[in-house]
Amino acid sequence: MNFLFQGRQCELALEKFGLRLYVELIDNDETQATQTANKIVKKLSSSMRAVESLVLAPAAPRLFRSGQATVINQHTSLRRTYEYFRERASNPFVIEDEVKHFGAGNGIAHGMTIQSGKQLMQLHSFHDLVASVNAYLSLLEHHMVLALPFQGFDPSKHSLEKFIGSRWGDKYAQVFDLTRKDDKRYYDRLVEVVERWRNTYSHGGFEKGHGSSVYLHYEGIGAIPVGLSSATERAGIFFMPATDEDINHVYELFDEFDAWLSDTRMRFAMEWITNELQVRFDPAFRAELAEAMETPEQFSKYVEYNAYREDLAANMDY
Q: What's the rounded Cα separation, in Å, for the pair 211 and 129?
């Protein structure tokens, strides 16, 4: 797009490596050209607020309902985040300076003095386990949004915007069928992990039924660390944040669940997602999906074709 700004010829161009702004160079004065470019960018940025409020926002509900929306596939970046923390939790590290700093009497973790590198490694594992569970649940929520068109989701009947903003359990109940044995079994097992590791550390560190959120003062015994379940229904004693058994249990579940999704429950959706293809919600795309999913072979050809088209678009080879 060509335009004039303060007497200079300018151009906005969408190129292979992104949006570019070109400003006419007058008398080889690069400083003036840079100042002009900065003014243009500033004005464009301020005008976006008006465009959003007057044009984009009023039209958004109609576009959502008609399925005129594309969800960007962030599978790779979210998966890498999960794998990063998983690797750290499974293979904890310890630095000599840390061991020295956290020597006996200098540091306390969950009421325990760190006396060795092994205890410090356990603390690292605990932190990274919590981070990896958060990352995995974020990845799962993303997958469930991307899987909607493959599950017969119709944005004219159900709110895509509301679904995106809902809790992970509500998403699961809409994408899966909790009356089916496997769907319900995996849901219950995921809830157990979420309640222990994610919700606890997303809500101020107060654990539900598993850990040392609170110390209760038992007469004749002393202060005992307990977990909370519906405030006072159950008290469970908990002394160590995360053992190797805890870590292995979580990741074995995640691996089993991933395999079930890819091999059985959401085979077509996961094939599309792991090929890093974007997901549209318009009627034409949903109709194409329904036809392509008639056989695995036909769907794989459809994925290959769309991957080729996205590569052409990314490389601007029209």
A: 15
For the whole model, what pTM was predicted? 0.75
Question: Which structural domain, as residue segments, surrounds residue 9?
Answer: 2-61
pLDDT tens across 239-293, in order? Answer: 445 677 888 999 999 999 999 999 999 999 999 999 999 999 999 999 999 999 9
How far is Cα 109 from Cα 91, in angstroms, rounded to an integer? Answer: 20
The answer to whether residues 136 and 194 touch, using CB atoms and an 8 Å cutoff, is no
Query: What is the CB neighbour count within 10 angstroms for residue 20?
Result: 11
d(CA 58, CA 77): 32
263: its two tokens: 């091999």
Output the CA torsion 232→238→243→245 (10° steps): -60
Q: Do 136 and 277 belong together in one domain?
A: yes
Q: Is residue 310 part of a domain?
A: no
Confidence band of 220 (pLDDT split at 50, 70, 90): confident
Q: Backbone dihedral region of 114: left (phi > 0), alpha (psi from -120 to 50 degrees) or beta?
A: beta
The runs of H, that is alpha helices, within 233-266 are 244-260
Number of domains forming the structure of the chain = 2
**Residue 297 lies inside a defined structural domain of this protein:** no
Looking up tokens 């999906």 gives 289
Q: Are 6 and 33 in contact (CB under 8 A)?
A: no
In terms of domains, do 93 and 241 share one? yes
3-state helix, strand, coil in the chain (%, to 5): 60, 10, 30
> Cα(31)–Cα(132) distance, rounded to whole angstroms?
48
R_g (Cα) of the chain, nearest Å = 26
State how far the Cα of 289 lies from the Cα of 245, in Å rounded to an integer: 42
